[in-house]
Amino acid sequence: MKLAVITMKQCQLLRELKPRSYLAFGSCGAARRMIEHIIEDQHGRIEKLRVSCRDCILAQLLQGSYIVGQPVLLPEGLIRFVAVYTNATRRTISRNRSRLVSVEIIDARSLLLTPRQRAVLRMLGDSATITGIASRLGVSRAAAGKLVRRTLQKLALLYAAEPKAAGAQ
């Protein structure tokens, strides 16, 4: 299965509200043309916004695909989310190319952590160093460093933690 990691500009509504964090969203209404945003505002209050978003990329994708996890707000008025890459997703991306900052198509398996990567995360959570991880796993420091780097790269992609450069795709 393929996934599309999509980074786009926030809609006008979200830009005006300047939310601290994006908590949830979903489609609603008879024709699923409404989208419900649940955000935390700058003062820590939770707000539920139900708006008609005919041109909202999220609303379009919810009609013909699936969004994996929750969208993440990024600096500079960007939002990142992961969608299952279907024909409907491809068409939506194609129609809205000017509003998208980047689209990266990845294999869903690339987001799954291996048992060894999960062990590395547990060790990092226990304040282990690269040297300590190498010792526990019985590998060289270089191999442990690569394993930690790849694990953190998967997490960054999975949680959409860091935006890519505007021109990168």
The residue ranges in which pLDDT falls below 50 over 5 or more consecutive positions are 161-169
Q: Count of DSSP helices?
A: 6
Give the radius of gyration: 19 Å
Q: Name the strands of the widest sheet in spatial order.
A: 5-6-1-7
Task: Indicate the percent of residues in helices.
Answer: 25-40%
SSE order: EHEEEHEEHEHHH
Biggest sheet details: 4 strands, antiparallel
Based on Cα principal axes, name the global outline: elongated
Describe this structure in words.
The protein is α+β, with helices and mostly antiparallel strands and 169 residues long. It contains six helices and seven strands. It has a four-stranded antiparallel sheet with strand order 5-6-1-7, covered by helices on one side. It has a three-stranded antiparallel sheet with strand order 2-3-4, with helices on one face. Helix 5 (130-137) packs across helix 6 (141-158). The two termini are 19 Å apart. InterPro entries: Sig_transdc_resp-reg_C-effctor (IPR016032), WH-like_DNA-bd_sf (IPR036388). One of its GO terms (molecular function) is DNA binding.
